[in-house]
Specification:
21 helices, Aldehyde Ferredoxin Oxidoreductase,  A, domain 1
């Protein structure tokens, strides 16, 4: 396979950076990325260790197809013991960092210990060193990115960074790469900051080798791309609307969690949908959506780049938010919008920008704000607790104030930074946290999509739509339609999706390809990269 066959082991306590061989026996057994890094983690840490202590480890990991010509082969994952859940955390990200790491000659980075002073890791092909983070610690992701680029004077470097929220100890801080792509859930950024690591900076010019039969591999990847082009979801729906194509669909299904899951439909859904992002604003005649965007090697291009009306209350006198940045995807639009009852598209976009800027998981953030609003509604929290903010459902100003507080780790933002489980426990209503293992539900109400309820309950990282996406079958009819309101047969459905998802994640490709690809489309790409003969079929 297209392995560099090397691991970069960084002992932060000692300040040492060493190369070691990748365990190829494990790579064969566990495929790569999520599977392989999970094996390394469970072998190397005590499962009882403090997620934010020096005994936990943080692993940046690629898959066998990462950095190759396989479509969507830009994925990498961050694996650790997560502070939000206390369980294994594997957060997957796109962009360009994963491919750059592989092209620098590394399959994996393992951080261990804790640095006595803030540092960042700089990688240039075979050279890797820890450098002082003076001048960037305490800065947002966006600010740190500018400083790092100015220092190294290389426009092609790729940067993964944590923001102020992680440094402040927010339990659901993300690691942001390429300014708006995120290893987002479970608090992997919080672990990184707890180790006094601000960023991973990488430049790779070696390319990806070790493909034993390049011609057979090229043929397999081109056949896979053809399938993606011809599929209605990956060839049309996702490029045009991104994941936001789902907003109106799930709302009409009656499974859009609304106002902390008190309701299953949101009247304002159409105002924050993918279709709405295309519509010109009345205020300035421009649409929210500027363009779509793609990660490394991606032929789908589902990413969103958006702008905010310069006269909107959230960005008045804030020109740093006037430019194009990563726009709303479905999960973020739901959490910031329906979960809080807010239907102001520009306010949601601003909150999403701040999540990108300071490294917040918008799913947990929005769901936690929704829980806080219900706590306020019931009188469990008051203006005295919130610093004078009336946490009422549907208030766009409350959403934007809340995200600023959490990003900075100030005031009531410290409570919101606990996540909904700890927040609701603190204020005496644990039942108002819509979570599994401490991680908040994503944008699918399990009462309306029964398979997702079982998927949430059995996910090894808490409530998650990316461990078994039965929505594909129950709502979209992929690969076949099943009734979302029945429980019969859902155990087998969930297991099938969980197994397939593990394979896609571990290969180093995007899960969105699974709307078009079966495992029979993935297997030839992996196997031909090894030079084996594949005799499977669709």
């Amino acid at each position: 396979m297209a392995w560099a066959k090397k691991i970069l082991r960084v002992n932060l306590s000692e300040g040492s950076v060493k190369s070691e061989p990748l365990n190829m026996e494990w790579a064969q057994q566990y495929l790569g990325q999520r599977g392989l890094a999970s094996k390394y983690l469970v072998e190397e840490i005590d499962p009882k260790c403090d997620p934010l202590g020096p005994d936990n480890k943080l692993i940046f990991t690629t898959g066998p197809l990462t950095g190759t010509m396989a479509s969507t082969g830009g994925r990498y994952s961050v694996v650790t013991k997560g502070p939000l859940t206390g369980a294994i955390a594997c957060s997957n990200s796109g962009g360009y960092l994963g491919a750059e790491l592989k092209m620098a000659g590394w399959d994996m980075i393992i951080f261990e210990g804790r640095s006595p002073e803030p540092v960042y890791l700089y990688i240039s092909n075979d050279k890797a060193e820890l450098m002082s983070a003076d001048g960037i610690w305490g800065k947002s992701v966006w600010a740190a990115d500018k400083i790092i680029r100015a220092k190294h004077q290389d426009p092609q470097i790729r940067i993964a960074c944590v923001g102020r929220s992680a440094e402040a100890g927010c339990f659901y801080s993300a690691i942001i790469n390429d300014l708006h792509r995120a290893a987002g859930r479970s608090g992997v950024g919080t672990v990184m900051a707890s180790k006094n690591v601000k960023a991973v900076v990488c430049r790779g010019t070696q390319g990806v080798g070790n493909i034993k039969d390049p011609m057979a591999f090229m043929k397999a990847t081109e056949e896979g791309k053809k399938v993606l082009r011809e599929n209605a979801v990956t060839g049309a729906g996702l490029p045009q609307f991104g994941t936001q194509v789902l907003m109106n669909v799930i709302n009409e299904t009656g499974a859009l969690p609304t106002r902390n899951m008190q309701e299953v439909q949101f009247k304002g859904a159409s105002k924050i949908s993918g279709e709405a992002m295309h519509e010109p604003r009345k205020s300035d005649g421009k649409p929210n959506l500027t363009t779509n965007a793609a990660c490394f090697g991606c032929t789908i291009a589902c990413g969103r780049i958006s702008t905010i009306d310069k006269t909107h209350f959230s960005v008045e006198n804030k020109p740093e938010y006037w430019g194009n940045s990563g726009g709303l995807e479905y999960e973020a639009a739901w959490a910031l919008g329906a979960a809080t009852g807010v239907d102001d598209l520009d306010a949601l976009t601003y909150a999403n920008f701040v999540c990108n800027e300071d490294g917040l998981d918008p799913i947990t953030f929005g769901a936690t704000v929704g829980a806080a609003m219900e706590l306020y509604e019931k009188g469990a929290i008051t203006k005295q607790d919130t610093g004078g903010i009336k946490f009422k459902f549907g208030k766009a100003e409350v959403l934007t104030q809340a995200v600023e507080l959490v990003a900075a780790g100030e005031g009531f933002g410290k409570d919101l930074g606990l996540g909904s489980k700890r927040l609701c426990e603190k204020y005496g209503h644990p039942e108002l946290s819509m979570s599994v293992k401490g991680q908040e539900f994503p944008a699918y109400d399990p009462r309306g999509i029964q398979g997702m309820g079982l998927a949430y309950a059995t996910s090894n990282r808490g409530a998650c739509h990316l461990r078994g996406y039965t929505v594909a079958s129950e709502v979209l009819g992929i690969p076949e339609k099943t009734d979302p309101l029945v429980t019969e047969g859902k155990a087998g459905l969930v297991k099938a999706f969980q197994d397939a998802t593990a394979a896609f994640d571990s290969a180093g490709i995007c899960l969105f390809t699974s709307f078009a690809w079966s495992l029979d489309d993935v297997a030839p790409q992996i196997i031909q990269s090894q030079g084996w003969i594949y005799e499977g079929g669709r």
